[in-house]
Amino acid sequence: MLAAFGLKRLLAEGRGTLAAALVGLLLIDYAAAPPPVVRLERPAVIDALLADPAGGAVMEVPLGLRDGFGETGTLDPRAMWLQTIHERPIAGGFVARLPRHAGDRYLRDPALAPFLDPSSTAGPGASLTTLGFRYLLVNRALASEAALGQVRRLQAVTLVAEDAEFTLYRLER
Fold this sequence. Notes:
single chain, 173 residues, alpha/beta, 2 domains, 4-stranded mixed sheet, 3-stranded mixed sheet, 7 strands
């Protein structure tokens, strides 16, 4: 409404060129344009996970918890996106306001602590399967040497698939 009044006044004052330029800018501003997007590559190991009919949660290595106030461990930001593809429960992740004690619970758990804190003196948790985990999805580019060492020390682990960046293991019960 205000723009129409302004346009009318500009035309009345003989400033048609300025009025036309402003209308042109307005049309350009409202022109539909596709929003910029980021193409995320889907790791090939996810197809192997989708092909496996066995249920069970996926633990990404490195493991991380992040909220609006900080991070515990190392979180691969793609973990939540990958979860939308494989649709299995995961450990870790991002929540805008994570209760302070949640990270402490992870660090006290003997199965999870070695993957969350590389300085942890606990051995790799044999109880990962009792927590419902069936798979380890290891990002070799992000995982520390300590986290990779924890994976190597696990017993009853079967290699399922590997691609340029990820290795998928199945935890045997």
